[in-house]
Amino acid sequence: DGIYPLQDPAAQYSDLIDSIDMSKAYCSTQRCYTAFNDVLIYRDKDHIGVPYVYSLQDKLEGKLLALLDEQ
User: Fold this and answer.
1) Which of 40, 38, 59 is nearest to 50 (CA)?
2) Do residues 26 and 32 lie in contact, with contact meaning Cβ atoms separated by under 8 Å?
3) For residues 49, 8, 65 and 63, what is the CA-based torsion angle, rounded to 10 degrees?
4) CA 63, CA 23: separation in Å to the nearest integer?
5) Among 26, 34, 44, 67, which residue's Cβ finds the most Cβ atoms within 10 Å?
6) Does residue 41 contact residue 26 with C-beta atoms inside 8 Å?
7) What is the rounded distance in angstroms from the CA atom of residue 29 to the CA atom of residue 22?
8) CA-CA distances (angstroms) from residue 15 to 8, 11, 19, 27, 45?
9) Do residues 39 and 70 lie in contact, with contact meaning Cβ atoms separated by under 8 Å?
10) What is the spatial distance between Cα 7 and Cα 30, in angstroms, rounded to a whole number?
11) Closest by alpha carbon to 53, among 31, 36, 28?
12) Higher pLDDT residue, 56 or 6?
């Protein structure tokens, strides 16, 4: 309804979608870090750098497998 259609096309499937919050991998409750283990975290002010993303692969895989086990 209204002037604008549904903003997020995936919203209609929200009961089928889970998410994985990886924010703790680069931010604490106090601040967000710029580097971890000599790897820069941010590519620019809005994007995480590819080398850091690769460093998170095992952590993400573990969270994904745990989520799949719940299904």
Assistant:
1) 40
2) yes
3) 50
4) 13
5) 26
6) yes
7) 13
8) 14, 9, 11, 28, 32
9) no
10) 32
11) 36
12) 56
- What's the chain's average pLDDT? 85
DSSP tag of 42: B
As separate numbers, helices (DSSP H) first and strands (DSSP E) second, the chain gives 2, 2
Q: What's the predicted TM-score (pTM) here? A: 0.62
R_g of the chain computed on alpha carbons = 16
What secondary structure letter does DSSP report for 64? Answer: H
Residue type, 38: D
Give me the amino acid identity at 36. F
How many beta carbons lie within 10 A of that of residue 27, not counting itself?
Answer: 12
